[in-house]
Design brief:
A two-stranded antiparallel ribbon has the order 1-2. A hairpin with a 4-residue loop joins β1 (about 65-70) and β2. Helix content is about 75%, strand content about 0%. It is globular. The protein is built from 21 helices and two strands.
Amino acid sequence: MDLGSSLALIVPEIILSLTALVLLLVVAWAGDKASCAVSILSCVALGACFFLVAPAVCAGASGPDTVAFGGQFRADAFAGLAKLMIFAASGAALIVAPAFFGRTGAMRAEYPVLVLLSTLGMSIMVSAGDLVSLYVGLELQSLAAYVLAAFLRDDTRSAEAGLKYFVLGALASGILLFGMSLTYGFTGTTTFSGIRAALDGGLSNGAMFGLIFVLAGLAFKISAVPFHMWTPDVYEGAPTPVTAFFATAPKVAAIVLLTRVAFEAFGTQIGAWQQIVIFTSLASIVVGALGAIGQSNIKRFLAYSSINNVGFILVGLATGTEAGASAMMVYLAIYVVMTVGSFVAVLMLKDENGEPIEAISQMAGLSRTRPALALCLAALMFSLAGLPPLFGFWGKLVVFWAAMEAGLVALATLAIVGSVISAYYYLKIVKIMYFDEPADTIRGKSDGAHWALLAISAILMSPLAYLLTGPLGELADRAAAALFLFA
């Protein structure tokens, strides 16, 4: 493919790059007074990229025509569907930020620029077809994320979150880089297709260690057990809009990247990594479920919920099948909506002075003081628990069904048991809101943008969303088919 054709495939990435650079210059000259305009332009850029990628996803783009720069970049439907989720989640993180940071005058014009740069890194990650482009995208995403975690410079919790995220992220990047070097050393190539061909005849001990280190480095990025230790502290300490961003867009990018590496690069050695993924999946489900039970802070609660959901998503990866990959994409789409809605609801938990409230105990009796907010949050909790008829049930059903079809009956059974356990702590939140005596501390008003995002999330998780099962399933099937064309 010539240079012009390759450039045509990366138009969304070019738009993100140029927009971020131009807005960075605007910020340098205009300062924080331009934060509102910079945020709006960033949302416009994300919207433009969303609509540029959508046609390729709907058409199920796949094959050699989606490969750019000699295999370094893949603009197929699998990457495209992930980008749609990433752009939407990033846009939500930009929309909810001004009200949160404006309360203390901490809104900085650099925030939307950092989100754009992180989104650019994620866009490169999900389209990576080579270990080099994989690492470039991942580091671009991570470096911006470290700054975002410590964005509140006068808040010790935010500074601590940024430091922890940076130190542990650097460790994970080192592990990943070591695994990549081993993989290159024992296969002689960095392209996913080349690695797959080199391993077709068997997996040497050195290549096995490379595979393990690569999986370990990526497991950190998705906060899967046993590499989850950073998640509760970073989620609690980082500003809530940043936490909402971390729990959605980067998680989608890392999971999709892990899936692409597993199927495209190590697809001939499914037996070598399947047991690792099964263990990580079950461990994440158990640790996420049990860890959330005793939490008193709603953001730490949602951190363990995120770990728990990663475990369910990995059930689809463990199948090693196209149906499993499709189920993962369905679950990811539903997970993004549930998580965005949950964090928007958390942002709306404020006292009469506008100070954020994070203690779960202060949500007592919310149904009597803020009935609309309590209803939307309850719908999201029921959906996260996977209770029918909420749409979250469909996400779990498709991954469990894919596991059953792949013959992983024991994994599906244990995951279902884990889902029952996790339902306890979601129902606990609903019980506190509807049956406890009102604490009557949540009195702050929220703007229309928050209400709109919360309402959209709640409606998309309602039984009405089952009308979308057909279109969503078709998009996920096309994305998985595009992935397996190279796998």
